[in-house]
Design a protein that fits this description.
The chain is of the alpha/beta class. Helix content is about 45%, strand content about 10%. The strands form two sheets. Strands 4-5-6-7-8-10-9 form a seven-stranded mixed beta sheet. The chain has a six-stranded mixed beta sheet with strand order 3-2-1-11-12-13. Helix 1 packs antiparallel against helix 20, helix 12 packs antiparallel against helix 13 and helix 14 packs across helix 16. It is globular, with a radius of gyration of 25 Å. The two termini are about 15 Å apart.
Length: about 550
């Protein structure tokens, strides 16, 4: 039954992609959106790669975080060739187009964009990201990219790198500078929002439909985004900006910065909806970009850089990795990115980093954290299963067995590896790790074991104190009575299990399963529509997805 439903769902989804592609041809405006190019000239033009990690011999050059530094020039060149030959009329780049913001990166990219426009006759528009301004002033940035928005601007904001520019007779672009160099990595002043509102009103008066782009996210794209990714969202006056845009006719804003692939929406008090579409970094797996068509519907399609010119890569890449890059670039990129993200996740679970992240003004809590941090570092690196135990004879499975619970059988080696996969699937879009999935069951039970082990030496009072603190840190409101029951539990595992069930699982469920609309390929309302552009096929897909999820849940419960 499960296989039959899965097969039917796949057939419907495949048909949907072709339908989306066909619909795109009927729309009057088509744009390509690519985010976070992070062109790194120094690494791309290096004579040879350097060893960046000791975790993998084959991918020893892979950097923490998952960015493709050595490959960035090749990726950008491949993307420009793809964009030049697709159906889009305009290319928009919402910031972090360079990695360090150095002059050599800006001049190199500007030359590539100029060649692109001359070759393909398509117009490119850019706006600054925080990386672009690391070594460059706003005025210098506008100078480097004068031909890519600033010279053609209808109106320039004298106080920032924001501007408006005409796309065609119907559509106008609003490029918003969301950076405050020297003050904070992101932000939005009241004066800048006033300027934005004036441009929205001017577009409405001119009968133009306004499409916006900005580097930082307008809205949160996953639970606790602002806490997990500091500076992700335009926090200062953020909702005022969303209201101004939505209530003045802006239905779509394209954002970047967080390197994830997601579409979410906000409805103003006046009932107007704006969609914030963030696109993952093209310079990390899955190397995705969007092609968006505007007409009766807004038709979103996701495409990928599937190959690069490996002959321009620096020497020194392991021959097996290089062979993979030549035959299957996306697999190569996935190996680099997943390894890099796992290194980053592992770094955050080190005792010193945990103490730094969790440090408070409460010395009692700090004392508990100091004792627990070292144990957390130890347990998250243990193998999940007893069959993989080292000479020390420890695994999460054996620890869980002592507590009377079992782990579902999977191929995930460690808690860090599983956390990496959950995080990365969210970054790739259309994630579907439901609370009843093996992945989430394994993660929650492994987390409960880790908490129990880390806090095994603390008193009931200390246990209650630290659980209450972690709940407040996560922004979760839990009654003091529940915290008291959990913390005062004589059986520490029972207490940690209750905490994970009441706090972590609900958060993971929101993080692990994408909420509508879909992230990769989807039809949304056009600028002339006040109703969701949901087709009959969309409704059929939603119906079968509910059936699939229901039987998946039943099978998981039976297992």
């Amino acid at each position: 039954m499960k296989k039959t439903i899965s097969l039917l769902l796949c057939i419907i989804m495949t048909f949907s992609v072709f339908t989306v592609a066909a619909a795109a041809e009927e729309n009057p405006l088509v744009i390509t959106v690519a985010n976070d190019l992070h062109l790194n000239v120094a690494s791309s033009s290096a004579e040879t790669v350097s060893k960046k990690n000791s975790v993998s011999e084959e991918y020893a050059h892979a950097s923490s975080g998952g960015q493709l530094h050595y490959e960035s020039l090749a990726v950008v060149k491949s993307f420009l060739a793809l964009a030049g030959n697709n159906e889009s009329e305009f290319i928009i780049l919402p910031g972090d187009i360079t990695d360090s913001g150095k002059a050599e990166e800006h001049t190199a990219l500007a030359a590539m964009l100029k060649e692109f426009e001359e070759t393909y006759g398509k117009k490119v528009f850019v706006v600054a990201g925080n990386h672009d301004l690391l070594k460059t002033s706003v005025a210098e940035f506008e100078g480097y990219y004068a031909e890519f928005g600033y010279n053609e601007a209808l109106v320039n904001d004298p106080a920032s790198a924001s501007y408006t520019a005409e796309l065609n007779d119907e559509y106008r672009l609003l490029a918003i500078d969301s950076c405050n160099p020297g003050k904070s990595p992101n932000g939005m002043t009241s004066a800048r929002i006033d300027w934005i509102e004036a441009q929205c009103k001017a577009a409405k008066a001119d009968g133009k439909k306004l499409i916006a782009m900005m580097h930082h996210n307008l809205l949160e794209h996953y639970i606790l985004a602002s806490q997990i990714h500091t500076g992700a969202v335009v926090t200062k006056d953020s909702m005022r900006l969303a209201d101004v845009l939505a209530d003045n006719g802006v239905k779509y804003i394209f954002t970047a910065h967080t390197h994830n692939h997601d579409i979410t929406s906000y409805t103003s008090a006046a009932g107007n909806v704006i969609y914030d579409a963030v696109t993952t970094s093209i310079n990390a797996y899955p190397c995705a970009y969007r092609v968006v068509s505007f007409g009766e519907k807004a038709v979103f399609r996701t495409d990928y850089v599937r190959s690069i010119d490996t002959s321009i890569l620096p020497t020194g890449i392991h021959e097996a990795a290089l062979a993979t890059a030549e035959s299957n670039f996306l697999l190569y990129a996935k190996n680099c990115t997943y390894l890099g993200v796992e290194i980053m996740v592992s770094a955050y679970t080190k005792a010193a980093q945990l103490k730094k992240l969790l440090k408070t003004d409460n010395e009692a809590i700090n004392g508990i954290i100091d004792k627990a941090a070292q144990k957390i570092e130890e347990v998250v690196s243990l193998p999940f299963y007893a069959k993989d135990e080292t000479v020390e004879g420890k695994s999460i499975e054996s620890m869980a067995k002592d507590l009377g619970i079992t782990l579902p059988a999977t191929n995930y080696p460690t808690l860090i590896n599983l956390a990496t996969c959950i995080y990365q699937k969210n970054a790739e879009g259309d994630e579907n790790f439901a609370a009843y999935s093996d992945e989430m069951i394994l993660f929650s039970r492994g987390l409960a074991v880790a908490i129990n082990y880390a806090l095994s030496d603390v008193s009931a009072e200390e246990f209650t104190l630290i659980l209450s603190y972690v709940a407040s840190l996560l922004g979760v409101n839990i009654s003091e009575d529940l915290i008291g029951v959990v913390g005062g539990s004589i059986d520490k595992f029972r207490g940690s299990e209750l905490f994970v069930t009441s706090v972590a699982v609900p958060l993971l469920a929101k993080f692990g399963v994408d909420e509508a609309p879909a992230d990769k390929n989807v039809n949304l309302p056009g600028y002339d529509s006040d109703k969701p552009a949901e087709s009959f096929l969309d409704k059929i897909m939603a119906f079968f997805k509910k059936i699939f999820d229901f039987f998946h849940m039943l099978l998981a419960m039976i297992a």
